[in-house]
């Protein structure tokens, strides 16, 4: 069984743990070995906590053997994105400036994961300060996509996506300001959930844009994401944006039944200028849901035409405030792309910020109106495929287009409006996986997870695995 452990879902591993048929010590050794063995290829980790992880695994084993099983993630090894504060451990934010920063407290989500009995395996690589989508980090080296090592894994949570895809972390937590959970999830063939704004506390997560930052699960399966969300969701008085809304039992609500589900499709924005193979996979998945009893309604969302401009205004303005001292005193210590991004923060005026706020309010209102008519919106997660590491342009049906603006084009509106959005695999384009995005009204995570589970049950990836997972690793 040992060689197969890192290919299993958390749901499968948890059942073995609960039955005392699997030891957290055994599993943790397998995952740590996998992390170290794959590190030279994916560069997913910034630091591996082998000694601490092994000690935590021994403690978890003792607790489980004594009948103190805490739940689904007890004894499960997991790496964390390196902008999430971890007490007494260097937390770099993927930057040179914070290369020696050691938080004095745990992020709220880390505290909850500790309570749940998670084994922390280390900190995961990311795009510098979470400010872009390639994870091509100039200070610690770029993360590579495990399906094709020449390709980007997406970002900014690229280390999280790559590590989960190859079993170097059994699940992870990412942060998402314009798509940074869903983008690498789509690119790496895993599940990524950006919850409703305020559903998961961002206290102790280094900010990018305080009005658009979200925190969410990145996992192999939909049920793994549901179980992880149950742990990290909930009100936190230390986070001003935290919502005091009851946490649901997300796992119990996953049935895969989509009979009478009303799917909203927006052609003008979410299906405009899409890679033809991505579009084909997405529409095939929608049709499969229709075949199971769902129906489709076309919807119109006018505010989407201004969404990307508004999102950029918030991101660049707020990030420039956060990093003002550093960009003025030591600009050379930022990577070239981040330096340019922050210096552009001088351009949005107070008028532009106010106009962006009006766009946000209009988009929120339009989404709320749409969701009185449909249950979910479905679209591709990404309109284009991951490009080669170091390239700024990407192919879109034979035309070279800008990678950054296209990678965040379909994911950004959910950040701007705060609605939940889930990315699940829905097929392949060549050798790389394709992601499908499911959006819904505020606090409809259980609905999104159920629809995502229905897509997952279609086995869109078949038996194919990343190139780093050979036949003998299945």
Automatic annotation (TrEMBL):
Highest taxon listed in the record's lineage: Bacteria
One Pfam family per UniProt: Amidase
Annotated ranges, domain Amidase: 26-449
InterPro entries attached to this UniProt entry: Amidase (IPR000120), Amidase_CS (IPR020556), Amidase_dom (IPR023631), AS_sf (IPR036928)
Family stated for the protein in its record: Belongs to the amidase family.
PANTHER family for this protein: GLUTAMYL-TRNA(GLN) AMIDOTRANSFERASE SUBUNIT A, MITOCHONDRIAL, TRANSAMIDASE
Name under which the protein is recorded: Amidase
The organism of origin for this protein: Salinibacillus aidingensis
Lineage per the UniProt record: Bacteria, Bacillati, Bacillota, Bacilli, Bacillales
């Amino acid at each position: 069984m040992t060689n197969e452990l890192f290919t299993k879902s958390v749901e499968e591993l948890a059942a073995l743990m609960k039955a005392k048929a699997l030891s957290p010590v055994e599993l943790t050794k397998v995952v740590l070995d996998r992390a170290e063995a794959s590190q030279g290829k994916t560069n997913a980790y910034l630091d591996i906590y082998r000694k601490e992880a092994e000690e935590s695994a021994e403690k978890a084993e003792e607790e489980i053997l004594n009948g103190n099983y805490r739940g689904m993630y007890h004894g499960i090894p997991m790496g964390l994105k390196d902008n999430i504060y971890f007490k007494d451990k260097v937390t770099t934010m993927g930057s040179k400036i914070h290369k020696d920063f050691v938080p004095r407290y745990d992020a709220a989500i880390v505290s909850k994961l500790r309570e749940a009995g998670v084994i922390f395996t280390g900190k995961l690589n990311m795009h510098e300060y979470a400010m872009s989508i390639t994870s091509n980090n100039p200070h610690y080296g770029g993360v590579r996509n495990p399906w094709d090592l020449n390709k980007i894994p997406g970002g900014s949570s690229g280390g999280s996506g790559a590590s989960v895809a190859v079993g170097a972390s059994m699940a992870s937590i990412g942060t998402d300001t314009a798509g940074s959970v869903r983008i690498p999830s789509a690119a790496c063939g895993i599940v990524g959930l950006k919850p409703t704004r305020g559903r998961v506390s961002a206290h102790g997560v280094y900010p990018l844009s305080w009005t658009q930052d979200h925190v969410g699960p990145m996992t192999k399966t939909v049920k793994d994401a549901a179980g992880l969300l149950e742990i990290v969701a909930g009100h936190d008085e230390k986070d001003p944006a935290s919502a005091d809304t009851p946490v649901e039992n997300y796992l119990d609500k996953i049935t895969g039944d989509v009979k009478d589900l009303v799917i909203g499709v927006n052609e003008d924005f979410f299906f405009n200028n899409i890679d033809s193979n991505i579009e084909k996979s997405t529409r095939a998945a929608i049709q499969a849901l229709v075949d199971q009893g769902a129906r489709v309604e076309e919807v119109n969302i006018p505010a989407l035409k201004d969404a990307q401009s508004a999102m950029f205004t918030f991101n660049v303005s707020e990030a420039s405030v956060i990093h003002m001292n550093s960009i003025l005193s030591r600009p050379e210590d930022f990577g070239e792309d981040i330096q340019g991004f922050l210096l552009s923060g001088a351009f949005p005026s107070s008028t532009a910020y106010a106009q962006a706020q009006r766009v946000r309010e209009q988009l929120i209102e339009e989404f709320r109106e749409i969701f009185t008519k449909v249950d979910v919106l479905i679209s591709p997660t990404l309109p284009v495929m991951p490009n080669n590491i170091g390239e700024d342009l990407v192919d879109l049906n034979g035309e070279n287009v800008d990678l950054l603006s296209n990678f965040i084009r379909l994911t950004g509106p959910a950040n701007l409006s705060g609605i939940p959005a889930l990315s699940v695999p829905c097929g392949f384009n060549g050798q790389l996986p394709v992601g499908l995005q499911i959006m819904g009204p505020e606090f409809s995570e259980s609905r999104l997870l159920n629809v995502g589970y229905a897509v997952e049950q279609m086995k869109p990836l078949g038996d194919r695995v990343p190139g780093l997972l050979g036949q003998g690793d299945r």
